[in-house]
Specification:
The complex is a heterodimer of chains A (119) and B (110).
Chain A (H helix, E strand, L loop, with lengths): L2 E4 L3 E3 L5 E8 L8 E6 L5 E7 L6 E3 L7 E6 L4 E6 L8 E7 L9 E2 L3 E5 L2
Parallel strand pairs in A: 2-11
Antiparallel strand pairs in A: 1-3, 3-8, 4-5, 4-9, 5-6, 7-8, 9-10, 9-11
Chain B lengths: L3 E2 L3 E3 L6 E7 L10 E5 L6 E4 L13 E5 L3 E6 L8 E9 L5 E4 L3 E4 L1
Parallel strand pairs in B: 2-10
Antiparallel strand pairs in B: 1-3, 3-7, 4-5, 4-8, 6-7, 8-9, 8-10
The chains are: A mainly beta (119), B mainly beta (110).
Chain lengths: 119, 110
């Protein structure tokens, strides 16, 4: 079954970091870029950036540069999103999705991971 | 930051047609592809229309996309209760730094 499976919900304190995983299955891990989006409560979708699971190259949205790191571990066929310096404004559902670079076409989405930032 | 403008809401009765617009304020939407997503409450977004007017396998024909030089549109004909969702348009904007831009979303009420 072709799918993206994300890690479970997480609660973090302000100032902390969070690391979310996304594990593709049903297709070749290195064939497709993985992109990350988020949706804060009552807000729309917001793009965060992408990672090439093959070479590891990344592109981050300007808003998140300096706070976001996308990595991959080819041995376990998993990609990761790490966001540091968390504030309440980072409370959101985070989604990974399959999609080629320089395009807004995402044909496969993970189930979403709720990150709550609260003291 | 580039902006894609959508109406915040739209409504129609079952069987009717609803049309959602998506216009760009800082770049020429006619230059690139527009994609549409359906976001049902509590679910992951789903690709509904890709590259202006194409439907992925499994998407009913009553969903259609179109685009002019200045705006894009999503039409849902024969509206059904299960179509109640938020719909987003999205583009790749290669001005300035390059980024995926989503419209603000349109809540469709049936």
């Amino acid at each position: 079954q072709v799918q993206l499976v994300q890690s479970g919900a997480d609660v973090r304190e302000p100032g902390a970091s969070v690391k979310i995983s996304c594990r593709p299955s049903g297709y070749t891990f290195t064939d497709s870029f993985i992109q990350w989006m988020r949706q804060a409560p009552g807000q729309g979708l917001e793009w965060m950036g992408w990672i090439n699971p093959d070479a590891g190259g990344t592109k981050y949205a300007e808003k998140f540069k300096g706070r976001v790191t996308m990595t991959r571990d080819t041995s376990i066929k998993t990609v990761f999103l790490e966001l540091s310096g968390l504030t309440s404004g980072d409370t959101a559902v985070y989604y990974c999705a399959r999609g080629m670079p320089f395009m807004a076409e995402f044909d496969l989405w993970g189930q979403g991971t709720l990150v709550t930032v609260s003291s | 930051q580039s902006v894609l403008t959508q109406p915040p809401s739209a409504s129609a009765t079952p069987g009717q047609t609803v049309t959602i617009s998506c216009s760009a304020t800082t770049f020429d939407i006619g230059n690139g592809w527009v994609h549409w997503y359906q976001h049902l409450s509590g679910r992951a977004p789903k690709l509904l229309i890709y590259r202006d007017h194409n439907r992925p396998s499994g998407v009913p024909e009553r969903f259609s996309g179109s685009k002019s030089d200045t705006s894009a549109s999503l039409a849902i004909s024969g509206l059904q209760a299960e179509d109640e969702a938020i719909y987003y348009c999205a583009v790749w904007d290669d001005t300035l730094f390059g980024a995926v831009v989503f419209g603000g979303g349109t809540k469709v009420t049936v």
